[in-house]
Amino acid sequence: MRKLLLVIITLNIIPVAFSQGIRKSYDEMTALERINLVNAFYQLRNGPDLINELAVYHGEFFNFDDTEDPTRLDIHFNLPDEPEREVFFAWHRQSLLELERAMQNINPFITIPYWNSSLDQATNSQLWDNNFMGQFNTDWTLNRNLGGNDQLPMPSEVNQVQSLTDFFLYSDLMERGPVHHGAHRWVGGAMSSTASPRDPVFFLHHAYIDKLWQEWQDLRGGSSYLRNSMLRYDGTYTFAGQTLSLVNPNNIVDGRFNGIFYADEQLAELDSYSVTNATRNPEVFFYQFDIVAGNNFTIPANRSARIESLNGIRLLPGFRAIEGSSFIASIGNGSELKDYPTIIRNQRPWDNRGIPINWDAYLPQDEKMRNIGEIGIYPNPFSDRITLISKESYDNWVVVIYDLQGRRLAQAIFGSGASVTLDKEISNLSPGAYHLKVLGNGSSVKSSTIIKH
Ligand SMILES: [Cu+2]
Fold first, then answer.
1. CA of 52 to the centre of ligand 1 (A)
2. Measured between alpha carbons, how far is 384 from 273 in angstroms, rounded to an integer?
């Protein structure tokens, strides 16, 4: 109790704006995380009511026709005719961040989850459960009409828009097409109005749109705005006694600028990011499934970061904790973050010649086994063979190895034994990281990251 009080006092004195973190699909949230998220939505309404504020603002500046008054900026539908006013992706990215920071002031472990509406389309999906997003419909009089007005995007429609190469064409078709607009209309009620941020699902939907934009930007690198500021985030707007800082949309075309990463299918990849501690010290990256950090993930001297997982952490070449930095990785086994035992403190993933080595070397043997639960995998890293052993035998369970883009490269059947060895199946793999999944009756039983020397 005393601890809680201290936290609250601190928050009142120092304006805390967290927001490094790993966003994940809502269906990967633990029960506790769901409750915390729902509570944070309710708590925001108690004031300062950022939900209402964003809904009113979004409605007020939704769209003005350029021919009426070209000096009036707006949020939506500026392409293809008004590219000089276009801010669709960047504005929604920044408003997600604004909400996420407000929630993290309530509970620092919250990150906004995403709803992949191209795969999760049932009106009785757990998204709409009464103890999750469903309850807001009556509580906040949202008048949703799930599936009544439009269709959700097909995966092929997502691929289609993601395949575009011109940024403004991409932004325009995303905004107007089924992936963004269709999902707004499919939910109906407030979500299909200009006050759509009134519906909490708005933020889960826009987290998905934001994730897609991040993937597009990682692949094509073509995001570029003609503007250097955005309405609301122009350095003059004040909400709840705080002036919001100036945000150049071109500075946030990479979501990593704010330390945001999206996890997918039980894997979070942390890369191309340098810890700043601008808003949180240490920066915390928590995900209960696998976390892989490398490829220019850097903790500079005098900066500090924690990476926390329940499943496994792999540090790949390109992960750097510079001398003088503080880095903690921990793999826990509890259900609450604060109870996680920290296995390694302030050790750097180098051997004594300064060569990066795999994190596995730092984990005691039982921790290695816990990485994949009831199914042991060894050796990892591997060179020419890899063996899986389970405590029981499972008929026709399949071991599949994917590359990081999700392409299926090799597989083997567990058969009736309790172990399986892959050797010739993996002889063609080049050195690097891969995903390994064990599928039982078609669904994923276990997943892990494996490294080939
Ligand atoms: Cu919008």
1. 14
2. 32
Domain that holds residue 438: 372-452
Per-residue pLDDT of 353-365, as tens digits, reads: 333 344 443 443 3
Cβ contact 50:99 at 8 Å: yes
Q: In angstroms, what is the span from residue 277 Cα to ligand 1's centroid?
A: 30
Residue 55 has pLDDT above 70, yes or no: yes
pTM for the structure as a whole: 0.73
**Residue 65 located in a structural domain:** yes
User: Residue 9: pLDDT band by 50, 70, 90 thresholds?
Assistant: very low
- The CA 280 to ligand 1 mean position distance, Å, reads 28
**DSSP sequence for 123-176:** TTSGGG-TTTGGGHHHHTT----TTSS--PPPHHHHHHHHT--SHHHHHHHHHH
339 part of a folded domain: yes
User: Ligand 1 centre from 180 Cα, in Å?
Assistant: 9
Start-end of H helices in 399-452: none
Spacing, Cα 177 to ligand 1 middle (Å): 13
In angstroms, what is the span from residue 239 Cα to ligand 1's centroid? 19
Average pLDDT over residues 424-433: 88
Q: Quote the CA–CA distance of 195 and 143 in Å, as a whole number.
A: 13
Domain boundary among 201, 219, 251: 251
Q: How far, in Å, is the centroid of ligand 1 from the Cα of 75?
A: 7
